[in-house]
Amino acid sequence: MTKLDNHYNLFINGEWRQGSKGQVMLSDNPANNKPWASFDCASQEDIELAVQSARSVLNKGFWKTCTATERGKLLYKLADLIEENAEKIGTIETHDSGKLLAETVSQTKYVADYYRYFAGMADKIEGATLPIDKKDMHVYTTHQPIGVVAAIVPWNAQMFLTATKLAPALAAGCSIILKASEIAPCALFELAKLIEQAEFPKGVVSVITGDAENCSAPLTSHPDIDRIAFTGGTDTAKKIIQNSSNNFAATNLELGGKSPLIIFEDADLESAANGIIAGNFGASGQSCVAGSRVIVHQNIAKDLLKLIQEKSQSIQVGDPLKQETNLGPLCTQKQIEIIETTINKSVEQGGVIIFGGKKIEGEGNYFEPTLIHCPTHNIETLKVEMFGPVISFIEFKKEEQAIDIANDSKYGLGSGLFTKNLARAHRASQEIKAGICWINTYRAISPIAPFGGFNQSGYAREAGKKSILDYTRTKTTWINISDDPMKNPFVMR
């Protein structure tokens, strides 16, 4: 495939390299379906070089001998560079994925704080002295870097979902290979330029991309990978788990979602409507925590539905680079096909399209903001993660029924509820089987707050102070402080 003027090489061992097999792919701009950039793809040979360099840097040189404080200073430097280049990176991500420029820029600026948070954590990874039940024994624990990390990052929130992996891994002293999505990898290659500028040692971070067969599979199955941090779909996660059986790599899995949003009868309707729109039409619905199952008390359903309709009429669909745009294109044509198929089946099952429901004609992957009224909880749009601007609206009578509908899903990532009743807010949030619950708000994030799911939404947690420990192994050291000779060697002490 012909390289475009805007072309990205692989970043391996501190060098910009062509793919060893010469494979080149194009990135299409979702706003017009035209190629705007090209990039090299990694093969097994490139994977081998990246892993070897990542292993080598752990065994010798500055990255092995530097203090945790020095690692933190490098992360602070990287954070400043990300913030300074947020406009450029955001623009590239918008060209690549179709996300609104207003969001990609603001999100890139904010993820700098993730690097600062973990920079501060680097020299706060403390061990412990154990009150051991043995005389004359001094026993303590330390946390050592887990080793070489393979991080698989999706296209829909690249800078955020990279930061939740890269920042704690580097703070812990690991080396890491970032595998960007071949659908839209360009923002991460721009990040690689900043990593190079921050003067991280060669081999500490490599950034690659490529297809599953030639890139992802050899990477996740490589015998020298110690941890895999993956964000993506459940089907791919199953393959990664299979691959990890070759190296017994520990895994972090952050997967899909079909998040419920419960609106109780005492909710502030203005706030609830804004939360519903933010949770579904924000990022064009291309969010793993999209609150796409809206569960509304029957007494307020009519009024809330009217308010959502009114607010949705003012949504500006169009060029994601324009500040006045509220909803941009979907990243791929395949998403539109899935949405159309799911909506058609839902209508056959009794679902009613209140507004939207169609692809917007013309160039680009644009889909109308859509709301489906669901008479029962067996409607297809309530089950399928569509990754698009589609709300499924279902009514309930009693709190217990709302909780049952909320938990009627194989996923369990995000959730939300709107109520003025404090007791109910606590009670219901505890009953919802999800890793995150937003109350009277939606789609908020912070480096301080753990992020992750239940059930088929994955396990482990990203962000928060404990997440850094996922990138370490605990080592226990025993010291005999007695001057007496060691006792009978054939008896366990």
How do the strands and helices of this protein lay out in sequence?
Layout: E1 7-8, E2 10-12, E3 15-17, E4 24-29, E5 34-40, H1 44-59, H2 62-65, H3 68-84, H4 86-97, H5 101-121, E6 128-129, E7 137-145, E8 148-153, H6 158-172, E9 175-180, H7 186-197, E10 205-209, H8 212-220, E11 227-231, H9 234-244, E12 250-254, E13 260-263, H10 269-281, E14 293-297, H11 301-313, H12 333-348, E15 352-355, E16 370-373, E17 390-396, H13 399-406, E18 416-418, H14 422-431, E19 438-439, E20 458-459, E21 472-480
Jot down its keywords.
493 residues; 20% strand; globular; six-stranded mixed beta sheet; Aldehyde Dehydrogenase, Chain A, domain 1; alpha/beta; seven-stranded mixed beta sheet
Give a description of the structure.
By secondary structure, this protein is an alpha/beta fold. It has two domains: 7-255 and 453-476, Aldehyde Dehydrogenase, Chain A, domain 1 (3-Layer(aba) Sandwich), CATH 3.40.605; 260-439, Aldehyde Dehydrogenase, Chain A, domain 2, CATH 3.40.309. 36% of the residues lie in helices and 20% in strands. It contains 14 helices and 21 strands. The chain has helices at 44-59, 62-65, 68-84, 86-97, 101-121, 158-172, 186-197, 212-220, 234-244, 269-281, 301-313, 333-348, 399-406, 422-431, and strands at residues 7-8, 10-12, 15-17, 24-29, 34-40, 128-129, 137-145, 148-153, 175-180, 205-209, 227-231, 250-254, 260-263, 293-297, 352-355, 370-373, 390-396, 416-418, 438-439, 458-459, 472-480. The strands form five sheets. Strands 15-16-17-14-13-18-19 form a seven-stranded mixed sheet, sandwiched between helices. Strands 10-9-8-11-12-20 form a six-stranded mixed sheet, with helices on both faces. Strands 1-5-4 form a three-stranded mixed sheet, with helices on one face. β13, α10 and β14 form a beta-alpha-beta unit. α4 crosses α5 (101-121) and α10 (269-281) packs across α11 (301-313). The longest helix is centred in the N-terminal third of the chain and has 21 residues, at 101-121. The radius of gyration is 24 Å and the shape is globular. The protein starts with 6 loop residues before the first strand and ends in a 13-residue tail after the last strand. The mean pLDDT is 96.
